[in-house]
Input
Amino acid sequence: MIVAKRKPIAEIVEMVKDFDRVLVLGCRGCVSVCSAGGEREVEILASLLRLGCRKAGKKLQTVTGTLVRQCDKEYIDELDEWDGQYDAVVSMACGVGVNFIANLRSMVRVYPGVNTTFMGGSMEQGVWTEQCAGCGNCVLHLTGGLCPVARCAKSLMNGPCGGSVNGHCEINKDVPCIWQEIHDRLGRLNRQDELLSIAPIRDWSTAGHGGPRTSLRDDLTI
Amino acid sequence: MSFIPDIQAFCCHYTSQQSCAENHGGLQEDGFPENITINRLSCSGMIKVSALLQAFENGADGVYVAGCPKDECHNIMGSQRAAKKVAAVKKALAELDVEPERIEMYHLERGLSPQFIAAGQEMEARIKELGPSPFKGEKK
Ligand code: SF4
Ligand code: SF4
Output
């Protein structure tokens, strides 16, 4: 899922300080699952914004809502339900949601309520870790399912750097060296020989280095 | 006129709240501040962050949650969960540049306990010292 985290309240209060009525808009997708921008968080943020504005001596009215997703056109259309009831939207979806509102509603003032952090998952309650960087040219079939692009600090393709010590990455001993894990895992699966082949220099053009990416499926377009 | 703080206490049924149930009238005679409103919950872990914030929106100068001792909660993890929610509100208050001490978590013995009175008194003294809630737009 896409993992996000609420922005510091003062930062959001600053964004909306000139408005009288704000729609705080959640998303039932990834951000609900990672407890950053679902219904519960919308309620909390709305309350904090009212309190923050009140402290600054101003009365803020909030309207709250949560869309099924904010990354699909048909769900953004549901925004029209609140037409005339707000001066600005604080979206608690990931950056995709904020972009979609801006793309599709040219006159709506939209602000981000969360920092979109990474694609990852939760192995333990309350802790999320990055797992995939969306590089557009997946190599997991070569690495036992563990991603060296997202999970190696240097995105190395041919084994660990010289800083890997006792299974820990040199950037921080709390970070496992993913190359150590790839070695161990391929060993357990009796695939260690595969590690001897040298990965060619990667073409990063699929990874966003050639500008924004588009994915087109002819079989689905109308 | 001296400042009488509005303090909202959220207390769990199994522990602190029993103090009130068993000794309702006597609580104030024992020194429990009368300006503290007790909101009864079946478990402190049930409290929602939004309800704690709502208390401030409704004009509370201070808020506290009272639940079981950390490792002896009637509902196992209830009071630990409550403590985390209180910590989340403390953090949010700090982000708004408001004293985080305006909200507190107390882990108290079950049943009628002097600690229950002491917690109320401590909160009362603390909030008097801090003055009216900045969310009310009044000066100390
Ligand atoms: S807008 Fe973002 S958070 Fe919401 S469903 Fe889409 S990807 Fe997930
Ligand atoms: S190799 Fe690329 S696509 Fe595959 S998991 Fe890693 S970042 Fe994601």
Summary: Residues 5 and 105 of chain B are 18 Å apart (CA to CA). Strands of chain B lie at 7-12, 36-41, 62-67, 103-107. Residues A 132-135, 138-140, 147, 149-150 surround iron/sulfur cluster (ligand 2) (CB under 6 Å). Chain B touches chain A through 16 residues (CB under 8 Å).
